[in-house]
Amino acid sequence: MSSSSKHGFRNVPPPQGSKPASAYTRFIPREELGDFAAWKPGSFHGEPEPEAPPPEPAAPPEPTPEEWLAKIAAARQAGYQDGYRDGLVALEGFKQSFASQATAQVGAVVDSFNAQFDRLDTEIATAVARTAVQLARQVLRSELQADPSLVARVAAEAVNNVLLSARHITVRVHPNDLPLVAEGAEEALTARGARLLADDGIERGGVLVDSDVGSIDARIASRWAQAAAAMGSDEPWEPTP
Description:
This protein is an alpha+beta fold. The protein has helices at residues 3-6, 30-33, 65-146, 150-160, 178-184, 186-192, 220-230; strands spanning 170-173, 195-198, 207-211, 214-218.
């Protein structure tokens, strides 16, 4: 028996007309192979064969036009909501900033008004005082013109205010007031032994008393300055042109 018959192989003659095949090129039918497996490197050493990689997941199907429109609408709605929320936050911040600025500006305006009112009050008070002083000056001038004999009362008061120890008392008045004082203040002049003299340098209605211990200035301008100072004014007796 040949080696091929020992292993159960059958010799299949080549087809007619073909060249005889060598033993190395003989076709081996499937039924003669028996159990077999493809050889792989490392199979002789009993190494496990590597596992085949898992199949790749199938690509998702492309969205339909309706699905694309739905996604666009959802994205647009989300963007609108985000923009609306951010707009509300920005608006609230602007309102707070505007309220702070408006409060500060109103406070500054109120402070300015108060300062202006204070200055106005001061100006009004000054103007009223000036008007009152000017009115008083006109009234006094009118009284002196209407009743020149008032100078006699002024002369008597000035003489009586001289110290009792004073000597050499001299009373000077305007020449036109000399007879009025001589008649109206005769008693006071005689009691103090005062001499009455006419002086053109003294305005009508005024009196100047001199003595060895000092002088009493009862001239109109001096008396007016004292009265105006008591009213908080420095308005002179002679009005400024």
